[in-house]
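Incident log entry.

Two folding requests arrived from the same account within the same minute. Monitoring flagged them as a possible duplicate submission, but the sequences differ. Recording both here for audit purposes.

Request one:
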Amino acid sequence: MQPSPEQSPQHAYPDHWEADVVLRDGGTARIRPITTDDAERLVSFYEQVSDESKYYRFFAPYPRLSDRDVHRFTHHDYVDRVGLAVTVGGEFIATVRYDRIDERGRPASAPADEAEVAFLVQDAHQGRGVASALLEHIAAVARERGIRRFAAEVLPANNKMIKVFRDAGYTQQRSFEDGSVHLTLDLEPTAESLAVQRGREQRAEARSVQRLLAPGSVAVIGVGRTPGGVGRTVLRNLLGAGFTGRTHAVNRAFPADQGTIDGVPAHRSVGEIDEPVDLAVVAVPADRVPDAVADCGEHGVQGLVVLSAGYAEWGAEGRERQRELVRQARSYGMRIIGPNAFGVINNAEAVRLNASLAPEPPAPGRIGLFTQSGAIGIALLSGLYRRGAGLSTFISAGNRADISGNDFLQYWYEDPDTDVALLYLESIGNPRKFTRLARRTAAVKPVVVVKGARHSGSTPPGHAVPVSRIPDATVSALMRQAGVIRVDTVTEMVDAGLLLADQPLPAGPRVAILGNSESLGLLTYDACLAEGLRPRPPRDLTTAATPQDFRDALTEALADEGCDSVVVTAIPWVGEDGEAESGDGEVLATALHAAAAAGPAKPVAVVHVEIGGLAEALAAATSTVAPPRPSARPLGAPTSTYAGTAASPQGIATDPPPAPAASGADRGPTGPARPATPRAAATGTDGADGPGSGPGNGRIPAYPAAERAVRALAEAVRYAQWRRQAAVPGKVPEFLDDTIDEPGAADLIQALLGSDPDPRGRPLAPDEARELLGRYGITVRPTLPAPDPETAVAAAARLGYPVALKTTAPHLRHRADLGGVRLDLANENALRRAYGELTDLLGKPVELQPVVQAMAPRGVDTVVRAAIDPAAGAVLSFGLAGAPSELLGDTAHRLVPATDRDAAELIRSIRAAPVLFGWRGAAPVDTAALEELLLRVSRLVDDHPEVVSIALEPVVVATQGLSVLGASVRLSPPPARTDLGPRRLPNY
């Protein structure tokens, strides 16, 4: 007999089920288990639900809950009966409940694996995606409790609820019984359900950012009564930018009769404002922030920018204050930028928001900029301003207690006003999610990242992040795998960002170099070779070159099918008196603009030395009116000496001219509201489809040094190549499925870990590791222990000569350089002699732990590893065996699961890769077998998260086949995978 609900034992409150979520409209809510203390909240919630919704829930008129109902809906055992609630401001807005049932639909306990589920959402909150979020979380809870299917009865007229189930992506069955629709959902996640979940996540998080960047009204809290101060500065910047919405100033110290300040309405609290407020900028001391947040929450403010300092950057007390700030804001459905933020800017013409402390607001443009540091933000804004670059949006998130770079990647992905995303990050709170979002965004627009605090070994103040065990070089390799352009400095970030925003993507690495300085051309040539590009011999136009000569040479280079991009070098013209003429950069800029506009769409960059006005003129957007033909006179010669005639550049009218960008900003392609397919890189002379594409796109980036221009161009070349490859993703070969015993491996892992596994994990013995790897088609050559010479001889006789004698002591493992390995022992005498030498040189057999192994065919010694990093996830690594590779860090890395393309790139991306492909006349080794081994290791780690590390060393790759001579495997209880669970906001 199954126990009744009142008889079932009560389990501990599962606080790990609590989660903050972003809803479809961008607001936040909290999901948590319902407890016995929620009776009044439940009754109040039910009273606000319409009669129609109640009818849909109970299939009959049900005006109020009885005491028994309230008791049943608030008393759960958190195993067989679970209830979750969605709260905003501490009050219920929705509930969901499941009850475990048997095959006849009666109350049951485990091992029954089906449950009946029912939802109820307050009418005022329907359409916000509340039920969809609840379904994700209740399904995760059910899977944790051993429930595999949900059953639901829905009235045919309840189309909204039917749609929630239908759109969830789970495998389901539907039937019509007794006047209702009977639904059965298989709760095992599918590719479709994961795609649905991530699509909803993207739309919700992008919308939450949009609410902050495009408010209809802004309240600045903490506006001083006298000029100066943070609040007054933000108010001044808001007004100076021409914010199109309504602005309010708030200070509780304002006199009661003060009506305005700086021409805007003045209030003593947000609650006094007689209209909705979308965004509040908080600039008050930290101890007054909670009151300001409560004031905003009660008034229905949608989001906060907290400029106030005194939080996690001040130590443990400040960190707790920061957590409380986030909890308080989310309880009202608000998201936060900050605290300790510098502010936000949105240059969209319909918004013109400058809610920041930026002294020099950037011009409108096509670059989105996110930074976690106010100081770096100021430097970047200043640098972009000086170089004439424009921004679409700017965000300085400070401690990023809530909104982070991940949220802005969600927003920029579908933002038609942003062509390039630049991010300065000092920490990454959710690295797996960042990699996933960056990969998707990079498929449609470049993502350029500078990572600060790379080598300090400590987290920046105010940032709580997972601790990574992998080196920074590995992080960089994983970013590049995701299509992220990783650079080392903010200067490099600006250099790359300008080129990517202003120019089309290159079709390949072939670079033409032209200019009026042979030396500068040679420097550019050398820089191209150093960056892996394929430069053509520089074309020297001589110092007597005129702007017309530059135009003709650039036109010719762009028309050359053997050229993918052009670097123009320019120095001032030296007059007859020996003095340099540095002016008239505008004339040269006009010539270069005309040539670039008339020619095929290929990237052009300029390296210049002290040519006055050139960089500024190149940065200015080209008018839709055809530019005048440049004068035929030497660069820098006096203007009065030469006369030019206006002429339209050939080919400039092949495409209809676009509308000019606002405020002289550069323009780029305007994509759809939500990118559907990645834009391809330029191919040949058919034009480019990437950022800044199209003839005459308006700006040509200029650089003061050849190395900087070439480095930016090289990043664009690598990114374009990644885009072309990403358009046809790699796959895992199907032949692996025929030789992999996944269920058998799972059973073996469970048996090895036991019923009560050590949370620290356990290393496998050699035989255990060999058996587990064998389930995935990975054969490890056996070794036999040799504690004395006689046993060694017997082992060799069993394995067959020739053999190897190796020590396995931890301090000597894989250290052939220390003499711990003897190879090609052809007979018993050789083996005995080697055994004696080994023990005489290195110590007693009990210390050396020698083993005998049959010799493998000669080849290249390599190492294959896989490990679970707490921050990055599962990482597959490859390199050559030996001290040189370890000392030089010559190891390549890819995220798991790896595809066939990842495996091929992995073995080709190390610097010593030529050794595998026939270096110095040697025979190439079997790289196909090596790629297959990498895929098998990747598959094993991906299928079984309990496998936290694998090391195959050495793996000898011969001309045909390979041999795995050593293997170590470590098992551990599987770590939490927050990236695969239901949507939830992180708690930093």
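Request two (distinct sequence, not a duplicate):
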Amino acid sequence: MKKVLVDSQQILVQWVSQATGINTLGVKVRLRGNDLHILCEATECPLRWRTLSDLLHALQQTDLDVLTNNEQPSIYQVLVYGRKKGENRPQWCHRVHLNQLDKHLEQVEQALKDAEASQPGGSLIISNESLARRGDPNAIAHYLSETLSSLGVGVQVKIKPHQPKDKTQAPTNRLWVFCQSVYSPDSSLLAETIAQKLRLLKLTGYQDAVITAQVSGETSNDWVLRVDLTPPEVMLKEWARWGDIQAIARLLTEVLLEFKVTVQASLKESTLHLFCSPAFDPLEDAPAPDKTQCLDIIVSHLEAIAPQGILGATIYGQKTAQKQPAWIDWISLPASQHPALATSALELAISGDEPATHFLLERLLNTDLEWRLKTGGIRVLLLHKGDLLHIMCDAPVCPNRKQVANKVTQFVRQLKLPGITGVRVYGRRAGNKEPVWHHGADFVQRQRLVPEATPEFAATSEYVGELIVKDGQEPIFRPDLTSEEVQNFVTEVARDWITTFTTTIQNFLLGTQIFTEVGQSAAADPDLQGGLKVALVWGTLGLLLTLQTDWISGQIVTRTLPQTPQVNSVETANAKPKPPRKPKHQEKVELLNNSSGQKLSGSKNSAFNASGFTVHEDDPEATDLTAAPLKEKATASAILLAARSQMPSFNARQLDEQLALYRQQLNIKGSPPDILIIGSSRALRGVDPAALSKGLAKQGYPNIQIFNFGVNGATAQVVDFIIRQVLEVSELPKVILWADGSRAFNSGRDDITFNAIAASPGYQKILEKAQNTDANEEAANNPAKSPDKQKNTKKPDEITSYQAINNGLNQILGAFSSTYQNRNQLKSLLHQQLDSLPLISDRNSKDNQPTDSVTETSDDETSLQSVDFDGFLPLSVRFNPARYYQKHPRVTGNYDNDYKSFHIEGNQDAAFQEVLKFTQAQQIPLVFINMPLTAEYLDPIRKKYEQEFQQYMIRLATNPNFIYRDFSQLWPRKNDYFSDPSHLNRFGAYEVSKKLAIDPVIPWPTK
């Protein structure tokens, strides 16, 4: 029992004493759940109706919740007791519902007027159950508190809207029941009780209810329970549709009970036998039910139900005590005329019909029909994945493993379902996300390369937490160890390791005879007298070792390079593309999948149910998506072109290679492309030049040349630098498509990409070139100042003269070295090998985790430079939230560096304004595409910034030379079009390109 807090108790005692006139020593109060108990005692037992009248008048003018502590649950009813002092039991008790005070008061006043009456008159008090059936949340709370208050549990009920997973369905209401107590009640104690009481109300308009339990003073829930509020009539009709005889008999009995007729049923082969007899006949002399009346009702209901596998029905009318029927009739059912209904549920299940299997499993586990109607019973969810059938069983109380697992396994084994070689059974409490237990059985010997992992019950972003082990779930191997003992052990091991390592290095250096111990005299070692000879020997060995290492490294790098032709092979970019070759990691994954028998099913039913319990894994073979054919990769050609280019590096390898590819295309075709796609990695992966060109050809724009100049991390400043300073006017296209999003315009964050470019020698050369151009123009206009300019221009040449010497030495050594030409590949190879080491890879992952943005991922590090000759990066990987967030942290907009201190006004806005002015001056239409994003990426913070960015773009769209297209909300739920939360793959790029091609507003160029 829960006592009221001291301050609240004194206030309530004084309030009752003032209302009734009873001394405070004779008043006691206690609060249990939502019930307030008031005991009134005196020398003589207080008069019942007078005491109640005083209390009711006081209750009308007082809010009890104000008198109690804020942490106390609301009071729904008051129980008043009266007894004589010295006695243990009260002489009278009266329950007062606070939502019906007027009717209570009228009843009490009538009782006072008619004290002699055996029963008080007045208004009839409506039960809380009757009020709760109307769906009012307060009435439902009062109704539940009648049972839960005795357990010390307070109740509060709210109604919240619920949007189904299927957006086409109308929103529904969901009932939320909040239970609060000073202790944590076991869910099994309350689950079936609450489920039965809620289902007894037969509420309409609610699909289910959610019950949460919370300890007073705490903020988190102890447990959550889901109660299925599907009406019993709907459950009965669903089972009757499958030919369940108990459900059919129960339905017909409820209909005929109005005529005092009960129905019993039995099934023999494909004929249903129905026996109609009097419902209430204790004397066994009632006549047999009326034949015409029974037949009309039964026939109409059976035709509406159309039970599966039942061809006809024989109906009997009989008296209670007689075995012989008074009348018999036979009718045919819809299954006799429709072959699809003639097959029984068992035969359908054996042939692989999933709904039939679902019904049979639920019928197997819910043997007591009455219990299922009262509590909702055990619900079964199926998932057919590969050659395994996964079966989830949940109920208000978690089903017992011994009673469920073996029964389900044996039943599935007897069905011999086609394509099923094993079953996995799970049990959980309704409302839980993770199973409490699981059980598996294989019907054939299963060969596995790796141990079988725990199945994933949900692969969507909504339940991604199910796939991640909580920190609290990690096992504690040595709970007896203290932190001091662990620290001492680590210190001793580190000290021994350092000592051993130091001694080993010292002995090795002394063994080379190049080094000697400190304090050792020269005469002590006669070998040191020939130091010059030793130096020559070691120098020669070092030179030979260097040459050998260079030769071996050259052979390794040459073998690892992709087999592509020289730079002149760029001309084959327009030739017929070769069949795409699968990456090695994909081949390994497919090999494991084929060997373990875990191929995903191609069934369209990709979930346990419509509530989003689980979805299929991201299987490239599960859904057929359209994309442009893969073209020949330009990796080797881009590297060679960038290495041979006269332009110094921009400290951005991808920018160097994209620029080299772009200018190579200019040399081959003799003119710039008609359309230039530019932007960050979202443009690099998100717009397919081949698909766009093909789509434009269908729209009457043939032979349009397109190049994708996307650069990872490119912001508005980077795009401005490329368009206005890197590219010559003669190299500019006819139309520019800028594909990106809001984060490229964030002036509040550090522009790492542009800062790296600004510190590069390529950037310095661009500035020098611009200064020389300005100086030449100024000299042409004002020749008198030209000598001064020439003096100023000589200084940089003198300062950087050492670079020419350095370059000359590099070229001489490079002529004799086999790895010099492939030094970049060697650097990348060594970097990959170092990253693969456990210690380094773990350190890198930890160092990068808090600062990396979710927009830059490394899933395809080997493919980041695998662009084709059109500059496009086609990625085939599909975004799977469950797998993705196991490898990468889920970074929200609050912690995303791309949105740090987000504001558009600043250097990025200024750069964009320069691009607008420049393109307008050159009469080049500028089209900006706000690229698609996933719902996983668009959290409330990012949505806010996206709206701000869209308003900014809409204001600028008034410029006649600028067109804005918003695709950000195009496919928020189609993860198959994305390679990560914010980047499209080649399938999404194909769809975006198709959509752009048919855009009537964009001024496409014509030949």
